[in-house]
Specification:
Blueprint (H helix, E strand, L loop, with lengths): L2 H7 L3 E5 L2 H9 L4 E4 L6 H17 L3 E5 L2 H7 L3 E4 L1 H4 L4 H6 L3 E6 L2 H9 L4 E4 L16 H12 L4 E4 L7 H7 L3 E4 L1 H4 L4 H12 L7
Parallel strand pairs: 1-2, 1-8, 2-3, 3-4, 4-5, 5-6, 6-7, 7-8
Organism: Labrys neptuniae
Keywords: Magnesium, Metal-binding, Thiamine biosynthesis, Transferase
Protein name: Thiamine-phosphate synthase
Amino acid sequence: MSIIDTIWRLDPFYPVVDSVDWVERLVKQGTKLVQLRIKDRDDETVMPEIRAALTVCRAYGADLVVNDYWRAAIAAGADFLHLGQGDLDTADLVAIRAAGLKLGISTHDHAELARALACDPDYVALGPIYPTTLKVMPFVPQGLERIGEWKKLIGDLPLVAIGGITLERAPACLAAGADVIAMVSDVVRHPDPDARTQAWLAATRPASVRT
Ligand SMILES: Cc1ncc(COP(=O)(O)OP(=O)(O)O)c(N)n1
Ligand SMILES: Cc1nc(C(=O)O)sc1CCOP(=O)(O)O
Ligand SMILES: [Mg+2]
């Protein structure tokens, strides 16, 4: 697949969730790109959840990104995988590519970006753009200028911005050069996640496909 096709396929609204229930809830509402991020489990126990999430995403024409569990992603026949720098230490990139998986990689500084680009990823993620409460990170918030810098460095490769991004902050991230906005709390911890999802979809869907 060419980079143009990859850009075309990646939806700008990219929620990250920790269960099949959340995946289903989001894709039923029209979400087209979602990450299943389940932490601290093994391949065997996440496998049924990955398979179930794939089934529901395919039924609704959405792309599922599997976080971390590359062996399970291959075994389940997933289409997308997300790996961080620590994950790269043990991942078999040849096997991942041989399985036809598209790959997104996290970056937080220039050394990580160089390592990510050497893996020939299908997207690069930059974070945390703003302070995040989801996990403790040894990086200061990157800010908007860094998004522009990353976009210049990676060119046509899709840039995913993540970390502390709210619907209100999203326009500035997109204007700075992000192609896709990933988020957890702004959807999952919102008092009305369904209404928030609809608001994100309305704000990020291209005018040509709005109803
Ligand atoms: C889109 C996106 N960006 C970054 C991450 C973080 O990946 P990683 O650094 O491996 O940390 P964990 O999410 O695995 O805790 C991500 N998952 N998705
Ligand atoms: C999972 C994750 N990875 C990040 C990175 O910078 O690599 S920030 C992050 C958490 C994103 O959650 P929220 O939208 O609630 O801030
Ligand atoms: Mg990871």
